[in-house]
């Protein structure tokens, strides 16, 4: 049986159990093992082992039944014991309830007894207190204070308590009978009050916080308690303002008092608030007045800078004081203090600001024009000027005499930066000093001044002067400076727009003034762009006029119909060289003067006009075979120049023109084939015919027959 038990292992697996049994049985191995396989012996072993397992099962079953019986017996005993414990618990709970009721009864009796004792003792104490007060009152009636409490200076606290009560009683007595004693009590009341304040003052100078707290507690019931607080506030400020920065001194003073005042007074927030009020209304107000009144009428710039600086430092000090306990609504309290200091200066702030900004802006502009020795000419307004402007926009004609500006654009980035800087500072002051309800309106007023002096008096004047300085399209050797005006105006627009977004928008973003400012900005920009477009258009006309002069002066009829066809040594004509050089120079200037899509737009317009000029120019000549080849070379050079434009449409126009020039040299038999080519197939037949007519041999019967 022991052997059988050894075969059981945890966890039990039947297959493994059989395997272990087989290997332990002699003759139970495989045929190739050390012992021969014996099935009979293995069967006998299985039968014996099954019998052993049956015996083991019976034994275990008997043991299980015995344990079950024992468990049932113990369970019954445990249940019986639990029932007995429950009965004991119920008895104990009943005893506890009885004890609790008894304790409640005794406590009620004790409270009732205490109330009775208190009801007896309180009148007794009051009677004793009244007796003492009557005794002290009699001393005042007799005119001689004998009690130790009045003669001993160390008992000033007890004396103060008594005299304060006597003073209240004396207030109720009729004056005609007790005038003398009332006077004596009042005098003693006043003397003790002065002694207590003097004692508080001495303790404060000695730094004895505990003594200050005792005296302040006694004085709390006296009329002179507020005087005690005033003395404390006055002495706190002695020697507090030793630095050059009164705002920093005030902050340090309040921080120190905030740490101390709670240990002295029963109402520290009231005392601290009174100190702060005293600092603002006396020290700071006096300091601000001294700083501002000195320059209020004489120096507007210094006045505005000082006002902004003082207001900022005062609000910063207020922010630091917000950390302290000053009562329920400290924000309103501090705001009222700040307003009381600055109200007389803030009422007319925006008038001073706009007046200064106008005068300063005018001075900046005048100083610039003086440095250029330029006297600003008046730009007309009204019906006549509007009529001229409309005629100029529709006809592109220069109205009035051309003005020689000697290359001066009358635009200065230094002037612009100065104007924007002054306006930026004005916006910052406006943000800080304006009432929130007035802020958008005040910011709009500053913006209108910026528009007046920067956009109208400076940029618009420069554009008008630049337009007047553009020569007529038939002028020779004209200097074109308007593109320089365009370049500088473009830069200034970017600076103007940046300030609009960075400094004006935050001030008006949530008000109706936003749409008004955006509309005004839009109108100004549209007005400027209209004049820029007019000036650029007239400048392009001048460029084309210059090219016409070059072609007229340099191009000769013999260029395309040489006397000696066999002795032509040039690759392209001198007129072509000079025109291309001029065009490349102007293209580079346009690219430097503009940005974005504006460059492509202007270059495309110039390219189209340039193509039209060359096309019409070529139509004026008759071409021999060699002259036609030279014309093709010229157009090829023009096309190379057109590549610098980097505009596909312009390059396509010159490609087509180059293909048309091939008609000047192609053999008569091939004319129809060339005309039907890819580049010329979509052109009008009259255009093709007009080029063929330029050939010197056009009137020959053979050529006319081939092209008909």
UniProtKB/TrEMBL annotation:
One of its GO terms (biological process) is non-motile cilium assembly. InterPro entries: Sec10-like, Sec10_HB, Sec10_N. Pfam families: Sec10_HB (PF07393), Sec10_N (PF20667). The keyword Protein biosynthesis does not apply. Residues 39-147 form the Exocyst complex component Sec10 N-terminal domain. Residues 50-88 form a coiled coil. Residues 158-707 form the Exocyst complex component Sec10-like alpha-helical bundle domain. One of its GO terms (molecular function) is small GTPase binding. One of its GO terms (cellular component) is exocyst. Keywords: Coiled coil, Exocytosis, Transport. Belongs to the SEC10 family. This is Exocyst complex component 5.
């Amino acid at each position: 049986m022991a052997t059988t038990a050894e075969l059981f292992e945890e966890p039990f697996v039947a297959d493994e159990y059989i395997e272990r049994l087989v290997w332990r049985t002699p003759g139970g191995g495989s045929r190739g093992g050390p012992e021969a396989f014996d099935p009979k012996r293995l069967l006998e072993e299985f039968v014996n082992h099954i019998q052993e397992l049956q015996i083991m099962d019976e034994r275990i079953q008997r043991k299980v039944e015995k344990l079950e019986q024992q468990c049932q017996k113990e369970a019954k005993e445990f249940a019986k014991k639990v029932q007995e414990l429950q009965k004991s618990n119920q008895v104990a709970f009943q005893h506890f309830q009885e004890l609790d009721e008894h304790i409640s009864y005794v406590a009620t009796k004790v409270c009732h007894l205490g109330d009775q004792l208190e009801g007896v003792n309180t009148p007794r104490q009051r009677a004793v207190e009244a007796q003492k007060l009557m005794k002290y009152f009699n001393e005042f009636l007799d005119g001689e204070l004998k009690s130790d409490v009045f003669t001993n200076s160390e008992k000033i606290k007890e004396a103060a308590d008594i005299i304060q009560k006597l003073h209240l009683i004396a207030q109720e007595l009729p004056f005609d009978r007790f005038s003398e004693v009332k006077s004596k009590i009042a005098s003693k009341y006043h003397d003790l009050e002065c002694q207590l304040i003097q004692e508080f003052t001495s303790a404060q100078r000695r730094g004895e916080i505990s003594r200050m707290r005792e005296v302040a507690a006694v004085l709390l019931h006296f009329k002179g308690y507020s005087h005690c607080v005033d003395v404390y506030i006055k002495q706190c400020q002695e020697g507090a303002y030793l630095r050059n920065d009164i705002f920093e001194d005030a902050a340090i003073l309040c921080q120190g008092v905030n740490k101390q005042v709670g240990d002295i007074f029963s109402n520290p927030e009231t005392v601290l608030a009174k100190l702060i009020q005293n600092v603002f209304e006396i020290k700071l107000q006096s300091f601000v007045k001294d700083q501002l009144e000195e320059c209020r009428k004489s120096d507007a710039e210094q006045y505005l800078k000082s006002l902004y600086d003082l207001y900022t430092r005062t609000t910063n000090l207020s922010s630091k004081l917000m950390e302290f306990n000053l009562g329920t609504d400290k924000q309103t309290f501090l705001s009222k203090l700040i307003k009381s200091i600055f109200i007389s200066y803030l009422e007319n702030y925006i008038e001073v600001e706009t007046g200064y900004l106008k005068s300063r802006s005018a001075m900046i502009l005048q100083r610039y024009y003086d440095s250029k020795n330029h006297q600003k000419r008046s730009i007309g307004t009204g019906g006549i000027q509007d009529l001229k402007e409309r005629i100029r926009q529709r006809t592109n004609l220069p109205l009035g005499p051309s003005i020689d500006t000697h290359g001066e654009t009358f635009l200065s980035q230094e002037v612009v930066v100065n104007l924007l800087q002054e306006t930026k500072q004005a916006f910052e002051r406006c943000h800080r000093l304006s009432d929130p309800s007035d802020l958008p309106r005040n910011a709009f007023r500053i913006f209108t001044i910026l528009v007046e002096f920067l956009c109208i008096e400076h940029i618009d004047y420069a554009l008008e002067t630049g337009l007047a300085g553009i020569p007529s399209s038939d002028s020779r050797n004209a200097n074109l400076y308007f593109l320089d005006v365009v370049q500088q105006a473009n830069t200034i627009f970017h600076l103007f727009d940046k300030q609009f977004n960075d400094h004006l928008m935050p001030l008006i973003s949530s008000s109706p003034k936003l749409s008004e400012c955006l509309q005004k900005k839009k109108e100004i920009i549209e007005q400027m762009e209209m004049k820029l477009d007019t000036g650029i258009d007239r400048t392009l006309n001048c460029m084309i006029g210059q090219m016409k002069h070059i072609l007229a002066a340099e191009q000769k009829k013999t260029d395309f119909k040489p006397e000696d066809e066999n002795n032509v040594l040039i690759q392209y004509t001198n007129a072509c060289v000079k025109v291309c050089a001029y065009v490349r120079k102007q293209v580079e200037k346009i690219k430097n003067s503009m940005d974005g899509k504006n460059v492509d737009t202007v270059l495309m317009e110039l390219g189209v006009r340039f193509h039209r000029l060359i096309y019409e120019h070529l139509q004026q000549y008759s071409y021999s075979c060699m002259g036609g080849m030279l014309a093709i070379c010229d157009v090829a050079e023009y096309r190379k120049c057109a590549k610098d434009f980097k505009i596909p449409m312009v390059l396509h126009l010159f490609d087509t023109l180059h293909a048309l020039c091939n008609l000047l040299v192609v053999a008569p038999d091939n004319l129809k084939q060339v005309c039907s080519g890819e580049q010329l197939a979509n052109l009008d037949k009259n255009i093709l015919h007009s080029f063929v007519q330029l050939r010197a041999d056009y009137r020959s019967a053979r050529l006319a027959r081939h092209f008909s």
